[in-house]
Amino acid sequence: MESDKDFYDLLYDIVVNGRSYNYSMINPAIGLGIMFGILRKQNEQVVINNLIFETIIYNYFITQKMIESVNVRGADITRTLPEEVIENDKLNMALCIKKFMQHYYELYNRKDRDFLESECRILFLTYLKPILNGRGFYHVEAETRNRIRMDLIVDFGTEQFIVELKIWHGEQKHEKAHEQLIKYLDSKNKNEGYLITFDFRKRRAKKPSAKWVRKGRKKFLDCLCT
Description:
Blueprint: H1 2-15, H2 28-35, E1 39-42, E2 45-48, H3 51-71, H4 82-85, E3 86-87, E4 90-91, H5 93-108, H6 113-132, E5 136-140, E6 149-156, E7 159-167, H7 171-187, E8 192-198, E9 209-215, E10 218-225
Parallel strand pairs: 7-8, 8-10
Antiparallel strand pairs: 1-2, 3-4, 5-6, 6-7, 9-10
Helix pairs in contact: 1-2, 3-6, 5-6
């Protein structure tokens, strides 16, 4: 049914791509979401009703992406085993991200740019979910979720990791991303974080890179995913 497809696309746009939609009951997809309590009105926009629904929807799209990556492309971005990045019940987030970057480069660096811009962040979640595997969980901060920036909080055991996902928009924007992450770490009372920037410039053949950056008391792993 066409309205089902529209509803699916609407949820994907809101949850994954961070797009905003004006509240309108004339739109059948929005009306369907409101009727079932999945969506609600907030400041003349439609948003996911609560964090539980959002997590369920994310997990659904992640599962679909995992199936698609294996069956359609013949490539499995989830192939890192939990024991490769977890030792003594502690998640090595830096190693986890570096392994993701390498898999992403090997599997996707020749893919169409439009595809990558809309899929890159859910690909990271697709990679991360099997590693967490019931021992940890994540959620996306709604106030920072948009087409340019998305902040992810990952809880594993007694540790919490702050990961900011961005799309490359030049050196000046990248420096601003550093400042944003530092402010966000301050707001969460954390001194360490991770910045993953997806770079879609034409020189994508350049291999991914990661380096630790220290600014005052804060330090973060600055990753360029190509």
